[in-house]
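User: My collaborator sent over this chain with a note saying "see what the structure looks like." That's all I know about it. Can you take a look?
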Amino acid sequence: MGLIRATGTIGALTLVSRVLGMVRDILVARFLGAGLASDAFLIAWRLPNLFRALFAEGAFSAVFVPMFNRTMAQADKENPGSGQSAATVFAGQVLSVLFPFLVLFTIAMMLLAAPVVWAMTGGFPDGGPEKFALAVDLTRITFPYLALISLVSLLGGILNSLDRFWVNAAAPVLLNICMIVAILFFRGDTPLETSYTQAIAVTVSGVLQLLWLMWSCARAGVVLRLGLPRLSPRVKQMLILILPAAVGQGAIQFNLLISTSLAARFLPQGAVSYLYYADRLNQLPLGLIGIGVGTAILPALSRQIGSGNESAAKDTQNRAIELALFLGLPAAVALCIASTPLIRGLLQHGEFTATDTVGAASALAVFALGVPAYVLIKVLTPGFYARQDTKTPVRVALFSMLFNLVGNLILIWPLGHVGVAAATAIAAWVNVIILYWLLHRDNHLKADPRLRSRGARIIAASAVMGAALWFIAPLADAHMAGGVWNRAIALSLLCGGGALVYAGAIFGTGAYRLSELRALITRRPASKAS
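Assistant: Without extra context I'll predict from the sequence alone. Here is the result:
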């Protein structure tokens, strides 16, 4: 499967998930608002989200997928046709170690929910004991999701290695369906009661995702055997690599966790919710583009580097950066300029007020400045992981997190929750700059003439689209306070108008020709043959 096709497959299913996620957030905003129940639930939800990003979309795949691929390739080389069975044995060894650890870890974290929530929030100084107690209860309900999603990531990594990207990409759809069903049919009479149904839905979705992946693996001929835990040499190597990979891949999520914790401690009630809703829209390009491209290129890079084809690996990463810029830059410009009509049109009804719109939109506009960086981090880190270098990204991530913490402490007092968003965006750009410089220094990556030329033209096209949105956004915002159909039409014209202007600017600047885009979609990479 080619890079564009694999990215498109992952991106299309991620789009379905993100659209359903937006429906979920609209409903949560309507029935929970941006107050006590919402802040408490979002704190409880932040930890499962963190682990999902670290494992399902991050560290586990970054370490496990290259090792699984190498095991297959080595076994096939020694005994043709034995690769998948040998790799499945390795995956079974990983499961036998991972499963008991996850059970014990989950039990411990549920018992320690109160100190964990206090460490994150300082006890919610602005919300009082009731808010803290609610957050602890909800955290205990959602914690089992951590273990379930970690097992999902193991099975998803196997299927990604077998080029069945769509199965793993479809799993998060179940999360959003569960939460939507819970809030539509099982919500309580108050926001507090509704927050409990949402927490229960999170864990139920983890069970459904695990069953879906188990069934899909069985259909692919992969059945893992759970045996006694045994630290084989390969499992030891994976465990050594996975912790730094988790920190490296999770830099963005760790930064958001730091930001959320500071907002809960030092900012007025509602700030946690403003940051959450802004981040949800801000994360849309990351899910559709960054995770899709990063997931698609990792197996190809592993094969190319493993076979000594460095030139092909450099070309793969250049094209991935090109694709990330082509899709990520206009998304950043659109979210920044049209933040207010987007938030108002999607979220402002029920418990979510006009004041909440202003708070969330201001955070989104600043968060959006870091969108290209969030995407590029996912594209650059596979260049290290494919070479089994997990230490370098973790050093960069730790520096980025320290930079983010300092930035938060400097900016949170004068700018409030907007300063939190600014520090997160700046830290992401620091992360990207250092990652690229290190790859370039070691001669693993150099921007080729095609990337430099197209990058400049993509920037120009994005600027043209931004100028158009500057005039379109206020007109659209004037119709966002009406009924559902008024909002839908205004949002469609806003998004569609921006997309049409960008498409025209892309072809007008010569960044791409239609024939080139068509060729990219149908192109087969050389990695399979290399």
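A starting point for your reply to your collaborator: The mean pLDDT is 81.
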